[in-house]
Amino acid sequence: MLIKKIVCEVDTANAKAFSNAQSKWGALSHVNGFIKQTGGWRKTADGLFTAEIISVWENRAAYDHFMENEHDVIYEEIGQKATLYSIEVALTQVDAEGVAFLFENWEIEYEPGWTVTKA
């Protein structure tokens, strides 16, 4: 499985708009190879909010197909870009046990509206 970890810095003024936009990623549920996405907030000392999102994909090929054909359409549609201060993305290959461990040991305040599962 492929794990995509997204870390976004969001200023206080845009936190609500970012959260609302993040809640609109439901179209992922119909993407081939997508398994789950969830995330939430971690407040930082400098007054920014850090949004951490994890998505799980069946494999790299499915993820690459999504990025090449569907990601930008969804991203532009929900208008999330204007709410970000910065973004970092990391990809990691793991087995099913690694995915379970990742979600059990993640120290953030989850946002229920950000969770998307495969349809």
From TrEMBL:
Gene: ydbC
Domain DUF4937: 2-90
Organism listed in the record: Bacillus mojavensis
InterPro entries to which the protein is assigned, alphabetical: Dimeric_a/b-barrel, DUF4937
Protein name: YdbC
Lineage: superkingdom: Bacteria
Pfam hit, one: DUF4937
